[in-house]
Every structure is written in C-alpha cells, then in structure tokens.
Amino acid sequence: MIFYFTGTGNSGYVASEIANENNDTIISISKLINEKKELEFTLKDGEVIGIIYPIYAYAPPKIVKDFIKNVKFKNYRNNYIFSVATCGDDIGNAMEIIKKEFNNKGMTLNSGFSIIMPNNYIILGDVDSKEVEIRKLENAKNEITKINTVIKGRKQNVFELEKGFASRFLTSTMNPIFEIFFNNVSKFYSTDNCVSCGKCEKACNSNTITLVKGKPQWNGECSQCLACIHYCPKKAIQYGKSTIKKGRYTNPYFK
After folding, report:
1. pLDDT tens sequence across 58-112
2. Are residues 81 and 117 in the same domain?
3. In a domain, 54, yes or no
4. How far, in Å, CA of 175 to CA of 211, rounded?
5. Percentage of the residues of the chain whose pLDDT score is greater than 70
6. Which residues contact 136 (CB under 8 A, 6 or more apart)?
7. Could you tell me whether strands 111-116 and 81-87 are parallel, antiparallel, or unpaired per DSSP bridges?
C-alpha cells in the first residue's frame, strides 16, 4: 500500500505511477486525517509500504511526519518500505527524518528517492517556465522507471537523493521556522474574481476552508500545500501580496 500527500499533484502523480506499475493501491494521507479514519492497517505477507510526499522547507510536511508517528501496521514482518520525496530542487535532510520515524516504530526504511518536479511554492518564488516544467516532468518519468525497478527487486539500502548544500543545517533550522510561522492562514484571501465554484474548499488538505455566502474563509492551521491557490480557475485566491503576479501550476497527469 502506498500512502501519499499532495498539494498540486506532483506527489500524487508519482504515487499513482508507482502503484500502477506494481499493482498496488494509493491512499491519501490528508483524506485519512480529515475523515478521522482509524490509522491501523493489516499487512499481507510481503506487502510493500510506500510513503510519497513533497518537501516543505527541506523536510516532509508535518502531516506526513505525524501520520508515520501515529499509524499502526499489524503483521509487520520486515515488510519492504520505500519513500519518495518530490521537490523543486533538493530535499535537505528530509529522508533521514522519515528513516528515524520508522526506526522509532521498530521498522526499517529500505530505500528512498527524490524526484525533481515543477515548482509550486509561489509564496517564496514562482512557477517554472513551461519549457522547464516539461523537461522536469519528462525527467521524472525516467526516475519513476528506475524507482520501480528497485521496488520490484526489493533492493536494500538504495538511497538516491538530491540533498543539496548544507542539508542537515537547512533542515534543522529552516523547517522549524516554517512550521511555526507559515501555518497561519491570515494572509489568504479571495479577490472579486471569485466565482464561488468551491474548488478551493474541495482541494484543501487541511480542512481550513469553508464557503461563507459563496466566498472562501480560512480558519485553523494550514499545511501550506497551496492547492487552493493553484486550483482556483480564476486566480482569485492570493496570499498577501506574494502571489499576485505569480503563475499557477497543477500536475497535468494527476486529477
């Protein structure tokens, strides 16, 4: 079984491609959490466990870390476990965090990978050009093929990661700041372009959006997936002044 968290579809796409090739199923972590599903799963003999997620400030999203801490796997008998992190450039020390969380449960992360995908965190940057986006998606297909080979062969200790410069330092310093200061929803708002379609509410991974008189209202903690911004068909959702002149991106292969 493959568990995934996705905002604009990059990690969802990777999860679905790996699942299709390995005759596996994908399960949305945010859906499990939002619907308050019991986080207990019974493993079959030889069943693979996969965790696929984007990188937020050089680390896995908090919801992913919390999921691994709280989930229970019955009948675990050294089942093969892999993890894939999608990122715009590099992942820092993120995979070590995943490895540690599994170790704390008496489980072993057998392999881990990173895949560079099109940028979507437009609060601190912008989307890639169309040319770069297409190139990244093509390269990602090749990386997924390599990952599937490793998974099918149950290869051990294969970690092919783009950690980047000063990975341990960046993860230990930037991620705590991100989780403290960037989960606030006060800067989100909708402009007069809003047509009350409700796509933002449906796309929200944190259940922070509700429509009030047809307009989105944010309340609670935000995962910063930015799905509400990118899936809005009218570019009506903004985050302060940071996103007004920025592009929008959703993975073309994941719905």
Report:
1. 999 999 999 999 999 999 999 999 999 999 999 999 999 999 999 999 999 999 9
2. yes
3. yes
4. 31
5. 100
6. 116, 117, 118, 128
7. parallel
Q: What is the DSSP letter of 128?
A: P
- Rounded Cα–Cα distance for residues 5 and 52 (Å): 7
The overall average pLDDT reported for the chain is: 96
Phi and psi at 45, nearest 5°, equal -60, 125
Tokens of 70: 């709280």
pLDDT tens track for 112-137: 999 999 999 999 999 999 999 999 99
- CA distance linking residue 62 with residue 140, whole number of Å: 24
- Amino acid 243: pLDDT: 97
As a whole number of angstroms, the distance between CA 224 and CA 207 comes to: 12
**84 inside domain:** yes
From 158, 178, 198, the end of a domain falls on 178
Q: Position of tokens 């509700």?
A: 210
Domain that holds residue 217: 188-239
pTM for the predicted model, two decimal places: 0.96
Element (H, E) at 28: strand 26-28
251, part of any domain? no
CA 27: distance to chain centroid? Answer: 13
Residue 248, domain member (yes or no): no
